[in-house]
Amino acid sequence: MHRIAVLLLSLFSSLALATEQAQQIFQEMAPSLYQIRLIDKATSEKSSIGSGFQISENGYIATNYHVISGYAQYPEKYIIEYEDSLGKKGQLDLQTVDVINDLAIVLLAENPQPQHFIISELTPEKGEEIYSLGNPHDLGMIVVPGTYNGLKKEAFNDRIHFTGSVNPGMSGGPVVNRFGEVVGINVASSGNSIGFLIPHDKLANLINQFDAQVEKTIDEQITEQLQANQQRLISEIIQGDWQSKAFADANIPDVGVNYIRCWGDSNADKPDALIFKAVTNCQMEEYVYISESLTTGQIDMEFHYFAAPELSSSRFYQIYQAQIARANTGNNVSKEDVTEFECQHDITGLENQSIKNKSILCVRAYKEYQGLYDVMYIAASVDKNNKALVSHFTLAGVEKKLSQQFSKKFMESVTWN
Amino acid sequence: MELIIEEINRGKKLIGRHKFFTNEIQVGRGYHNDMILSDPHVCANHISLKCVDDEWFIEDLGSINGTTIGKKTKITHPQKIQSGDVIVLGKTQLRFILPAHPVVASVKFSAVENVVEMLGRWSVIAALLAVFTGLNVTFMYLNMPTKEVNYNSLFLWGFGLTLAYSLWPLFCSLMAHLNKRETRISDQLGISFLIINLFWIIDFLEAFLGFNGSSDWSGQWFTLLLAIGLTYAMFWFNFYIAFEQTTKRRVKFALGLTTFIYGSLFVYDLSNQPEFKSYPLYNSTIMSPTFAIASPISPDEFISNSDSLFKAVDEESKEE
Which of B238, B104, B240 is nearest to B171 (CA)? Predict the structure, then answer.
């Protein structure tokens, strides 16, 4: 009994302490917090909002790239505006971006106030109390206490897993430890009090490269970042040791990276189905956001198995044919971003004759980010009378050479067993 | 001397033909005439024809609307007739022919005519219709994605389709009938369904080439040309059976209709293209292993072929 009372007391006091700390941090740091908004020039209305925080005494402010992506794409259409804790408004200049980590640095050139956030040199401990600051839904600056839960598992680009609610509008706001030092930047929420933050070292990197970055145009920066990111991603996958994984009567590749996750389904529960179908879908759940119309950086793989031992092969192939007619890539694009697809098809086979496919490869080029392509491949096996295997992948935003290396490795790793 | 009088309509089509063995012929609306016309613009005693020394003369008997030779020359006094002259009285046209008038050489039954006659036999038509309906039903059955097959609706659709395709040859017969020509329904059905069935072969060829060929050559132009050729041939035969035309005119009509149809299809296709296609368009034809005769290429070759794809989209992206 006594023990429980003590336990309760200590819990209370720590809660009270947390609230007190949060209030104190908020009061101290409020002058360096800003609401960042894109104003549509034609209508003078807000077109998107987010949060930002000052990182130097001469007026540099960090925020999310996606908050100001409209301006980065169409600088003639928008202006970037801030509103500080006292309600003062003014214009900001875009300096540099990091689309991979969703970061941007903007400059408040006129009379910046000197107070600013310090970026932490240490990574928080798992379970440590941290505080997210921002302006959710345009409701005013708030502070949300939460817990640092380490880096998200199964991610290619690091994200902090934060227990605490990060709401729309808080994007770009800082997350600080109890000393008020920045340990992360709000970026996304996954509902139910699960939030994701960009680790502070990504911002530190961007600041370190600042001088070299500002020499380049925003488009050049984005092109280089996309190139480096896909280089790192695709090379890692190609150089990895692909295991062969059984899928019905076939072998399909397991590329062995944890950020590509597979899901499966089949129609085995429908006994009156004409054809047995099974599907495995492996995809990367993260993507790189460039604009409302363009997302890139994903990898998708899909495998379908069809079998109908009692069906004549003519009927089987008629129905099977309809299944491969409409393959597409998963990323968003618009006419301004990419060319249309060019496709080729042929009958392909492996040396050991373990499978014969009708293979189709389609490619489209990025217009703004030269040297990058979306690549789509789909192959349908045509060597068995009553069963078939479809193998399909898409790579978004990759270089020609790497995509070809990937294609070769993929084609060689799909076989009948 | 005998005189042949042909009644012709304004399209120069023959309506009636009369041969007279007398030396004097009266023509008019009155019942006492040798040739009685019913045209209300013709007078009771309109013209009289007389043979003098083996030559025929025409005289207008003071009719209200007059009589002309050809379209212009009004007959005011007895005038000599040449074989082949056409006169107009009221709205009626008459052509005079003398017995010595030359006739064109007789037409031998042509190979085309023999083929048409052969296809027009009802046994042949039945076989052609059976092939068409049978193949349609078979393909509908093969494409049925469910275990349960409703044969009633399958056959209903099959017959319905055959009926729909018969509309064209029936329409051609109707046109012939309206032109006062023999309808020749069986000939029209025979030739039309023979050619429609030949389209199955083109379909098969297209699938076979699309499946076995590579994107460098899938024979799409080849099969399109074949299809256009067949369409032209069908129209040519339809017109041959339905209308009496010169060969030149028939070729012109058939070519015109073929161009119109493929042209409309092309324009329709073009206008239906979205401004920007965010999805790939590719040839997804596959056939069962029996038809897979192409020897497969290696992944290496397939991928090195893709260099040209990258080149093509590179050029496209730099165009803007």
Answer: B238
To test the contact with chain A by mutation, choose from B141, B142, B284, B298 the residue with the greatest count of A C-beta atoms within 10 A, namely B284
Contact check, Cβ <8 Å, B310/A365? yes
10 Å CB burial of residue B142 (0-12, 13-18, 19+) is middle
Report the candidate in A383, A361, A101 with the shortest Cα–Cα distance to residue B282: A361
Tokens of B316: 């496209």
Option in A347, A351, A367 nearest B317 (CB): A367
- Contact at 8 Å (CB) between A37 and A83? yes
Q: Is the ipTM of this complex over 0.85?
A: yes
CA B260 to chain centre: 14
The predicted pLDDT at position A373 comes to 97
Instruction: Report the distance separating Cα A208 and Cα A366, nearest Å.
Output: 29
> Element (H or E) spanning B316, and its range?
helix B307-318
B300-317 average pLDDT score: 95
pTM: 0.82
Distance CA B38, CA A313 (A): 73
d(CA A123, CA A120): 7
What residue ranges define each of the domains in chain A, with the CATH number in brackets? 2-215 (2.40.10.120), 224-416 (no CATH)
Cβ distance of A313 and B289 shorter than 8 Å: yes
Tell the residue number behind the tokens 């499946």, with chain if given. B211
User: Using an 8 Å Cβ cutoff, are B88 and B68 in contact?
Assistant: yes
b/e per residue, A332-354, with b = 16+ CB within 10 A? bbeeebbbbbbbbbbbbbbeeee
Contacts of B278 in chain A (CB under 8 A): 328, 333-334, 338
Residue with tokens 């497969």: B296
3-state secondary structure of B240: helix
| Distance from C-alpha of B263 to C-alpha of B260, rounded to nearest angstrom | 5
Residues 6+ apart with CB under 8 A from A184: A130, A160, A162, A174, A175, A197, A198, A199, A200
For chain A, helix, strand, coil in percent to 5 are 25, 40, 35
Q: What element of type H or E holds A365? A: strand A356-365
**A363: number of Cβ within 10 Å:** 26
Q: Say which residue the tokens 């006594």 belong to.
A: A2
Q: Which residues, 6+ apart, have CB-to-CB distance to A136 below 8 Å?
A: A142, A167, A168, A169, A170
Residue B106, helix vs strand vs coil: coil
Kindly state the greatest CA–CA separation across chain A.
80
The minimum CA-CA distance between A181 and chain B, rounded to whole Å, is: 45
Q: How far is Cα A197 from Cα B251, in angstroms, rounded to an integer?
A: 76
Tell me how far apart the alpha carbons of residues B302 and B306 are, in angstroms, rounded to a whole number: 7
Low-confidence ranges of chain A (pLDDT < 70): 1-19, 190-191
A406 near B CB under 8 A: no
Q: pLDDT band at residue B42, thresholds of 50, 70 and 90?
A: very high
